[in-house]
Design goal:
By secondary structure, the chain is of the alpha+beta class. The chain has 17 helices and 30 strands.
Length: about 600
Amino acid sequence: MQSIASIKVLTKNKNVLRWVNEVVNMTNPDEIMWIDGSAEQLSMLREEAVESGELLPLNQEKYPRCYYHRTDENDVARMEDKTFICSRTKENAGPNNNWMKPDEAYKLGEEIFTNSMVGRTMYIIPYSMGPVGSPFSKIGFEITDSIYVVLNMNIMTRIGKKAVDVLKDSNDFVRGVHAKCTLDINNRFIFHFPEDNTIWSCNSAYGGNVLLGKKCFALRIASYQGYKEGWMAEHMLILGIENPKGEVKYISAAFPSACGKTNLAMLIPPEGYKTKGYKVWTVGDDIAWLKVGEDGRLWAINPEAGFFGVAPGTSSSSNYNALMSTKKDTIFTNVAINLDDNSVWWEKLDKNPPVNALDWKGNPWNGKTATTKAAHPNSRFTAPAKNCPSISPNWESPSGVPISAIVFGGRRAKTAPLVYESRNWQHGVFVGSTLASETTAAAAGKVGVIRRDPMAMLPFCGYNMGDYFGHWLEMGEKTSNPPKIFHVNWFRTDNDGNFLWPGYGDNFRILDWIIKRCEEEVEAVESPIGYLPKAKDINLDGLEMTEEKLNSLLHIDKDLWMEDTKNIEEFYSKFGDRLPKQLKDELNLLKNNLK
Ligand code: OXD
Ligand code: MN
């Protein structure tokens, strides 16, 4: 095997070299390897990870080039209480973030990082968020001591020499450092320094905390960059809807977790639509970067190159396209292994749980007798986006795709109707800023508790959310032809708690109405909260749904809404004078409309 020490330095960029040198002096690795992204280098790393047990090769006939990885039992999810925005002032981080003074965070980080790579290899990964060379794209470096991170970053971003080549001599790159250290949960920190374009992550090896291109850069740091530079980084899927004439309109949509973002991004239209020639194209399932185009519209790219999806619940019926994306070149983390054929399994994959398996902790597991879960509920697949059967031909377009509609959605049993449209951009920003979801029985704690999660960005906004709302309002002013903004709720229930709407592929019927509104093909009805569809304009062909049931899905209960305004008021009060006046005006307008 080639000695890793012989792998050459990839750049002469003095800013990069100075910073790498500082990190080398602090962490003191035995060896250093610059990741050039070549197939030979990556396959050498896979071999090494297999030798050390960090990766297990899966059945290569069934799952070509797929591997399995297990994390520490206490290291299985993003940890919001360990995640800090270290802006120079607490006010700039806002009430939406944990804050630590930058000096303190750097000092604490330095203590933990010092000599953390002794006896280990340091990998230096240059990467591009967004298609290499696109005007939307940004360059980052992640220094890590984990091969798992290198191989996941290779799926989730565009890594290697090509990223260094576009950076040239520029100092405009995000500096990420990750060290596994001892995985000590008490010393686990994910520090973001938005003013320094810097991320430090230690004592974790779980994706969301250590794949620094994703939530850390593409949302937390990028949201702040967008605020300063006049663009937006959002927790949004992007999809295209093709009509039988071959015209494609794009929608971006933000939902809090557990509301089916990946499913919507990869939706297969109902039979009646499919036979007419309608199609859904996936551009991205988690993050969108948006900019105003010369035509005055908002254009968006997916800055990622892969899907880091939750495995349990993914099946050929719930999300065929996601499942197909995982059939090759995928890394599975914390799912179960079927020892009979060295394949993977997770809850709801199919109705045939393995009887001779290892669960996510590595313990023997038998689907016939098991009382515990085979896969961790947050077990993941890291799959290349290009594997997805519904991937859009434009998913890597350097100029992005033009957005016709922005959709916000939450899980609301009663309040929010199936769909409504905001009256204008400012009202749409109000709708997004009050986005909320109710807790379900699946999570610990009280059921039905409302959690405000503005624009689904609460855990991901790298600065004060009051300023973030102001930025949204300003973006509307800069966009002469802005997308229309909608709100959907797939989760409305009847009095017995049964879902009224079938969801999944049938959500296409609502997307169809949304596009028809954007194209001014149908009228809508004014209501206290915005525009509602006329029941006749929602296509119910092939669905067992009476118009009466649809009407109850669209019903507005004014008392419940009035109750909701109190909760909004309380939430808004956290932002003090950073809350834009326009949003207070919108809240007052809503209250008046409900009287
Ligand atoms: C994710 C998340 O993993 O939002 O995408 O937590
Ligand atoms: Mn997400």
